[in-house]
Amino acid sequence: MVKNAQVISMYLLIHSGLIFFLYPADIIESTEVGHWIPILTGFAIHAAVMFVYLKGLRLADGQSVLDLFSSAGRTWSALLLAPVFVYLTMVLVITARAYSEIVNLLFLENTPLWATMALLLGVSAYVASLGIESIMRSGLLLFGLSLPFAVFVLATSFQNVDWHYLLPSIDRASASFSFLFGVPFLRSLFAFGGGFLFLGFIQPSLDYSHRRLLMSSLILLPLFLISVYVPLLTFGQNTSATFLFPFLMATDTVDVDYLIFERTTLFFMLSMFVFVLVFMAIVTWQTVRIATHFVNLPFKPAVMIWTCATFIACTKIEDWQQVERLLGWNTYFRLYAMFVIPAATLAIGIRYARKGDNTNEARAQ
Amino acid sequence: MKRARNKAIAAVLVCLLIMLLLGGCWDNKDINHRSLPIVMGIAKRESQYLVVLQIPEPGLGATKIRLVEETGTTISEIVDRISKNMESQIDLLHLKVVLFEKGYAEEGVNDSVETFMRAHSLSPKTMTAICDEPINLFFRNIDSFNKNNGTILINFFEKNAGWNPHISADRVWELFRSIHSYTRDTVIPIVRSGTGTVIESNGSGVIRGGKLVERLTSDQTLLINMFNGISAKGKIEVMDHATVEILSSSIRRRGSIEDGHPVVKGRISLKVSLIETRGQPSQQQIKKEVEALLSDRFDAMLKKLKAHQADVLGAGQLFRTQYSRDQLERWRTDYFPSLNVDIKFDTVIQNTGKLKADA
Amino acid sequence: MRMIKELEARSETDSDLLFQHIRLAGQPTIFIAFRSLIDLPATLNDLYQRAAWVADQPERGSLGEEITEPEEEALLALLLGGQALLWHENGNRFASLTPIAKSLSRSIESPTTENVLRGSISAFVEDIDTNIGLIRKHEPSGSLHTRDFRLGSSGQKRVSFLYKEGVIDAKLKESITQRLVQNAERDAGDLQQLASLLGFPRWTLVTKFNTSELPQEAETALNEGKAVLLLERMPFAIILPSLMWDMFAVQNDRNFPAIFMMLIRFLRMLAVLTNIIIPGLYVALVSVNPDVLRIEMALTIAKSRVDVPYPSLVETLLLLFILELTLEASIRLPKSIGPTVTMVGGIILGQAVVSAKLVSNLLIIILAATSISSSVVVGFQNSFSIRLFKYLLLVLSAMYGVIGLVAGLVVICAYLASVTSFGIPYLELYKPGRKSNG
């Protein structure tokens, strides 16, 4: 079944859930001037990698990545997918941990961290256990529900900007791409490193137009720019570099008289929280999907077991520094998931397509 | 078989839920058991902080105001102690105004500003002001004035209530930005308790690097607001021959470097309405007088600012492309004192009130 | 001879079983029927006329249908089905004939549970044939088909399955037919039994049937490719599958200008959201996250809650409980006493509870908004779901504040997204001929 709207909204939802928290701080840290260069670079990498991935998937005639890799042999596919499995698990742990930290910081001062993590993981496990079609449908529904709020906050976040901070647009350091191998930039790839992998997992139950999806990724570009530039234009480089979550700070300075609510951050946090829950659900689903592909396990219990394991892992992380260290280790797996998996998909896809042609020709003869 | 299992799962879930409910309301504290201070006064006396909180207490009938005072070594410690002593929990989330005592402001408020930005329980939108008299005296004076209006201090600063362009408005985040910025200082209002009105505006203070370095009159504050593009509507300007009301103002400015010195050229367009005339001045004459008066005031103010190397005009912002970041870092000390500002005032008398011009 | 004795013995326990000795065309005959189901004088009158007509010319055949091998069970089933029997003494022959039935149904009236502002106001009645007739009147199309099934252990409950050929999803038609044929021996006295007969899960929070009293709703459903089931003695049509959109749209809206239609539907969506969110939001804002409120608002709420002894969760649950009682009571009571309950519940109790300082008066406003908005959705069966969902949000809000509220919304959305009937997702916007997104 062709479900363009579901897939596209899921794609946008996942990424906007990730963009607005850790990403701006990393980009602001990566360079002092001309932040648009790392943003565009990151985005170009994202688009290119996604293009390769989708191309490979198209050659594979709408098979899922799992089936496609399995066509290259069970060992090969296990070797290829094991790092992805580790990567997704780490993403799940980091996301659950980091977001409960944020929630506790902003809304629930006295609630113990494990309770917030239990909520996050519990809800995402429930959503994940319903299966991919339900996840996608609820994604679309939630996207529709929270979009007005997110748009409202994005629009009002420009209240305190000083456009002078836009300049200078470039300097030698940023033009030389020296940020490229710096830790902050590599860490910023978290925002779009693994989100798109789900596209290879949802086929064949859901089909979608690859071209439209690529087009829709353009919508992300302004979001990337806004997430970095709103705090920059409000505070300036020096001040925003001191914040852990610059975009949240920038929305916190917005004053809207006509709401009964004091903080527009509230709306923003809530819609982003929804997005993150859906993101975690789909990551859980992918992880368990990989696991059940190789080990014979019923799906729902596997989700439960996996969530419990994640929960225990999350409670073992003690402070924010460990989260950052985990993010650092995660970089290697992220680079693997970002570059090797799409490349492998393309390579195996080409091989598959050629084989398909050969058999067709053989049949014709 | 399957149904029985489902039932068991449901029962376990319900039990879990009840357990969570019984033990799980960590943040559950009803609003009437929280104290929501709206104004905080901070002073520093011999390395001890003195904090005064103004807390509205909702009760049957009118809202009463309560003042709480405490001293200690850090602000959060003081708040904790007050919270312990009070019958309800202090919740600083609704704090609206922070008043720094003048002495403390002169010493530097960096620490408290950073506390405010770091602690999640405080909003960065909190307004700041400097208090021109001992802080406990100030609170006692305004307390005797308004027994049942807790929000009077807030209204003084709210754009849609009591604020007017003579008063600068500054929030904690703007103060924080000015501390970290290379090119931007800020002004915050100075208030004291009044005799006829509850609060009296006393001009504003120039904050450089978190310290109060200079005071400006309210007329000068108006000019700064104009320069920063905040519309100065509603202002009445008294001159020899006439009084005018400024209806709107707009500014265009550009920065350039001439002979190694930074120069700002700008044009402020004013639209005014005639309110009062003395004698028979021509419109041309009034225009000229307005322009000359504003120019003089501006120059005087600039001289003051240059002396303290405090760029409250944010003029450095205009040179972001001309100077490198290293140079901008030295903007206040090396370049700002030699800044030339060439501001032209352009006045249009939009209307002459309800009378004809030559009436 | 033996058979007629056995039947006669039965009349002792069935007092309305009638044995009338008559002479038809000179032949001694016994007329057997349930007196309660037929119009006796008219039937007999008609019978005599036909008998005379047949007797004139014997080649015209006989009266009624000959029953070749009479058995008691079969005969009784015929009688219960409203047929009459003739027993000819000469030759010990049984024949069945269709008598003139007594009218045991209401005449067509206006609907009692659904109000129509503009549009046809005739509603379905208990008689299944009348109902089919009503639908045929609304949809005089050759592609409308009706298939009858007999359900139940005695095989007497009639179910009609209506669909429009070419519009209905072939898979949907197939699976409904299959279930009805397979489970024909099971009872379908109520909708729960029908649901289990159709293979729906027992523990569902969303009704799988959309019901309507209005033929025009059935007509729209048919044209949208849905299936309509009519159950004997049920004065409404059962529309399958039930979709979320049915909560917000009725065919009647189309009798208003398009822009009003859209606004009305938007209003209904807002109402559903209000109903689910508001009680939870109240608890979240009052107890957990008062910081997000404006100070003026916060002070007002605090003022209204001074002296209220319990936490806001208990306060809200208490009043919601009373509200649910009022709702339920007003269904039970006769129409003439109903308003009394409303008055006692609404005005007296509401006023007293506030002045007794048991709850804050803001909560009264919140709950009034809740109860009003719960009735805005189309179809009473749908209001149950949203009435239930709000409790989940209430509990989560008490624990986690606004974050819990949103997490609860995610759970609800995911639940709704997971519901399917016959492979058609609850969230689907059903359109004929096109598989739509969502």
Summarize the structure.
The complex is a heterotrimer of chains A (365), B (359) and C (438). Chain B has 359 residues and is an alpha/beta fold.
Name of the CATH architecture of chain A: Up-down Bundle
Query: What portion of residues of chain A belong to β-strands?
Result: under 5%
Number of helices of chain C: 13
* E-strand count of chain A: 0
Strand order of the largest sheet of chain C: 1-2-4-5-3
Order of helices and strands of chain A: HHHHHHHHHHHHHHHHH
CA-atom Rg of chain C in angstroms: 29 Å
**Biggest sheet record of chain C:** 5 strands, antiparallel
Tell me roughly what share of residues is in helical segments of chain A. Answer: over 70%
Task: Profile the largest sheet of chain A.
Answer: none
* Total number of strands of chain C: 12
Mean pLDDT of chain A: 82
Mass-distribution shape of chain A: globular
CATH fold naming of chain A: Amino acid/polyamine transporter I
Rg of chain A, Å, rounded:
21 Å
Could you spell the SSE succession of chain C in H and E letters? HEEHEHEEHEEHHEHEEHHHHHHEE
Structure annotation, total helices of chain A: 17
Through-space gap between termini of chain A: 34 Å
Sheet-strand content of chain C, in percent, reads 5-15%
Structural class of chain A: mainly alpha
Subcellular location (chain B): Membrane
Domain Spore germination GerAC-like C-terminal (chain B): 202-353
Membrane topology (chain B): Lipid-anchor
Domain Spore germination protein N-terminal (chain B): 27-192
